[in-house]
Amino acid sequence: MTLQMDDLQHLANNRWYSELPLPFQQFIQEHALIQHYQKEQAIFYSGDTFDGIYAVLNGAVRLGYVDIEGTESIAAIAEPIMWFGEISLIDQQPRSHDAIAIQKTRILHIPSAAIHTLVTTQSQFWFHIAQLTSQKLRIAFLELISIQTQTIRQRLALRLMLILQGYGNHVLIEKNVIQLSQEQLAQMLTCSRQTVNQELQALEKLGVLNLAFKKIEILDQEQLHRLAHTRQS
Prior knowledge:
Blueprint: H1 5-12, H2 15-18, H3 22-31, E1 33-37, E2 42-44, E3 52-58, E4 61-66, E5 72-78, E6 83-84, H4 87-91, E7 98-101, E8 105-111, H5 112-121, H6 125-149, H7 152-164, E9 177-178, H8 182-189, H9 193-205, E10 209-212, E11 215-218, H10 221-228
Antiparallel strand pairs: 1-8, 2-7, 3-6, 3-8, 4-5, 4-7, 9-11, 10-11
């Protein structure tokens, strides 16, 4: 199945893809496989062998890990259009986390054979893979600093802002609605659902957002951004 016009528009709004040299964009378009996943179906599990890189075209994917006691940790929710799965390409190690569809999801997949051929014949593509990974590393450092220096409200604002921006993946923010439960937000912030609920209600009273069932509508992006990037003195 080939990429549709809507898919190409999604790709154009992905910062990493939009900045790739044209030959690499064409390579992705030519080698892309379109895959469909149902709710709670795995794209891959922690420990799996590298089988390529992925991007979310429609739907959403939960990136995280479940320990031996069944406790789940969520690192991120990948939405259109966020790339994932490239870390194992770089370190040649098994997958470090699970990738699970949280609703009906349509995925762009570049198989490992195609990627290995590309990096072997066009070594400069490694630079672009490094850019993709360093983008996530930058976000990870930002969140680590947030944990050490900010209140739970500020951390919540930062997480909502990152999700809205597609974790730095979006050239433009095209929508202001986040499809996410309070339980999932609590897992991301490693706090209780009750704490998240209290802080969300406080932000709602400030006019920053509007709450609905498993959905958060951002009403004031500027105020959310200010909260997210304010550090404790």
